[in-house]
Amino acid sequence: MFKRQSFWISVLCLGMIASAQAKEKLPIEKLKMPPGFEISVWATVPNARSIAQAPGGRFFVGNRSEDNVYLVQNGKAQIFAEKLNTPNGVAFKDGKLYVSQIADILEFNVPANVTGPQKPVRTLTQKFPKDTHHGWKFIRFGPDGKLYVPVGAPCNICDMGTEYGRIYRIDVNGTSKEIVAEGVRNTVGFDWDPVSKDLWFTDNGRDWMGDDLPPDEINHLTTVGQHFGFPFCHGKNILDKEFGKGKDCKDYTPPEAELRAHVAALGMRFYNGKMFPSEYQGGIIYAERGSWNRSVPQGYMVGFAFVKDGKITSVKPLVEGWLQVGDAWGRPVDVEVMEDGSVLISDDKAGVIYRLSYKAKKGK
């Protein structure tokens, strides 16, 4: 018992040292925000990707390269599960954690005190393709209690067949697997409008159409089964030169907002906190991980889409500065609104989670 306790004390100490080192080494002073906003390193988490919040100030963090899932509490991280297959997506519901692998979803019990890596209690019966190209998954429970699971295109662009380019929803206690949306190239972030309960999601545009085409997207699902155009149509009205022959973009659901090309828009949440100024209420905070093949890189920021009456009225940078003279020292991936209204931002390159907060100046 003493050896086991000593081991976890050592892990905790190493985590505290790593966190302190991250705070010292990362040039967070280069991050720029509107007046009143502040950002700090909240936790050190290797390859931090998707974030899921649980009661009691617990946060679960998936990753795409280390095959571990982390539990973070009070800014300190420990391994919750290990030796998984690309556990990018995490979702918490009713005392259980659900973790997406490439081809399936695992269910874990979450004990009150986690003293070491946990084992899954079962694998859900619903299966998904084994392709690793866009095979990592963001997952999240909807207001209907169903778990939403995307399957990205197994290619840059191709005739995908019937299983790919979709968002599904499944019943974790049964065998149902329903198509919610089609024509979705690769979404790694979605959320529901707190008022209408409509699903909104980011989508990454295809590559090799040039530096400025096609746009990344923020999409709005209003009817189950809508088709959002891929691989036939990109953005609002750009027909694909190969796959768009004989097609019409008017036959597909256009994006609610066109973002810049290749910015890799990923995690997004509706802001329902009380800390930020009132104009941010009901808008969408989202992460742009950044381009990988554009001649001049762009993205590498957190943006905000202002929403009114179910429509995006404008999109503006909220946090930028990870990209410095063509070189990025960080890549934001996901966002999560904390109970106090501040926002967590994961960064899989810097290996940290930031906390974005707001403090109004006196007299304002």
Description:
- The structure is a single chain.
- This protein is mostly beta strands.
- It has a single domain, classed as Neuraminidase (6 Propeller), CATH 2.120.10.
- 7% of the residues lie in helices and 38% in strands.
- It is built from 1 helix and 29 strands.
- The protein has one helix at 2-25; strands at 37-44, 51-54, 58-61, 69-73, 76-81, 89-93, 96-100, 105-109, 122-123, 140-141, 147-151, 166-170, 177-182, 190-192, 199-203, 215-221, 226-227, 233-234, 238-239, 257-261, 265-270, 284-288, 301-308, 311-320, 323-324, 327-328, 332-337, 343-347, 352-358.
- The chain has a 5-stranded mixed sheet with strand order 10-11-12-13-17, with no helix packed on it. Strands 1-29-28-27 form a 4-stranded antiparallel sheet. The chain has a 4-stranded antiparallel sheet with strand order 2-3-4-5.
- The longest helix has 24 residues, at 2-25.
- Mean pLDDT is 93; it is low at 1-23.
